[in-house]
Design a protein that fits this description.
alpha/beta; globular; Rossmann fold; 242 residues; 11 strands; 6-stranded antiparallel barrel; binds flavin-adenine dinucleotide
Length: 242
């Protein structure tokens, strides 16, 4: 996986629990375009260091996490990532919370685009706030004729953000500060089923996603090839020590 060194160009608070970090750097000149909604691995500096170590080494994983490409500007070498903040204590969320213009961040990747078929018969997108950047970027890539539904779970009404979406994609916001309830599962069970096969995108807390996948497998419209599910974080995980 190619590693690139970047620096913070801009910090923007989008919502109480979402901070945008725009990264820049000459090494982004070779970063691929059209990868919005795919993820990169970010590599934060070790404690007491200014720059992250980008040469592969044992223990590197400790300093890496996955974040979604919200936007990439090839002309200006600007990569936009949106970080959930003020929800938990963790290496990356803390890095984002303290980020200042000029701070260094390593980038590895990108990985593949998540949504399985932008031209599917219909689309079903469900995610919590960590998946908001992926859902927002996916919606921007859908054709204007796309049909289906989107369910986004955010902790507060102030976390609702503007989305650009096709007219026939119905957007549902779920506002609940309690991460322990799998409210997306209930939405999935009650979602309107359209004709044909949907491309499904589901990303949220790991155990919740597992439960949703369990339900999905029994749904008549389920097609493995058209389904992306991923645990974007795990509630059961103990904070990793740096
Ligand atoms: C493909 C992919 C794309 C992703 N894209 C994004 C993105 O664009 N923006 C984004 O913010 N996140 C995104 N995530 C999720 C992000 O990688 C995790 O939330 C990650 O654990 C955050 O790292 P951390 O260092 O802050 O916390 P960690 O050190 O990993 O975890 C510390 C503690 O915090 C808990 N925790 C971790 N994340 C959360 C959370 N969101 N809410 C509550 N508790 C949490 C853990 O259970 C653990 O106990 C993505 C994940 C994947 C797999």
């Amino acid at each position: 996986m190619e590693m690139r060194m970047t620096q913070v160009h801009e910090v923007i608070d989008l919502a109480p629990h979402m901070r945008r970090i725009v990264l820049m750097g000459e090494e982004l000149s070779s970063f691929p375009t059209d990868m919005e909604s795919a993820h990169v691995k970010v590599i934060v500096p070790r404690p007491g260091q200014e720059k992250p170590e980008l040469a592969p080494h044992s223990g590197m994983k400790k300093y890496m996490r996955s974040y979604t490409i919200r936007h990439f500007d090839k002309n200006w070498h600007l990569l936009t990532l949106d970080f959930v903040v003020n929800r938990h204590e963790g290496l990356c969320t803390n890095w984002a919370k303290n980020a200042k213009v000029g701070d260094f961040l390593g980038i590895a990747g990108p990985g593949p685009v998540k949504h399985k078929d932008f031209n599917a018969d219909w689309h079903l997108l469900l995610g919590d706030i960590t998946a908001f950047p992926a859902i927002a970027a996916t919606l921007e890539r859908l054709p204007q004729t796309a049909r289906g539904a989107i369910y986004i779970h955010v902790p507060s009404a102030e976390d609702k953000q503007e989305l650009t979406l096709p007219d026939n994609m119905n957007l549902h916001w779920l506002i609940n500060d309690d991460n322990s309830q799998n409210i997306l599962l209930e939405c999935l069970k009650n979602a309107e089923v359209l004709e044909g096969k949907p491309a499904v995108f589901i990303a949220a807390e790991g155990a919740h996603v597992q439960a949703m996948l369990g339900y999905l497998k029994s749904a008549p419209y389920y097609d493995k090839e058209l389904t992306y599910t991923s645990g974007y974080w795990n509630a059961a995980r103990k904070p990793r020590k740096s």
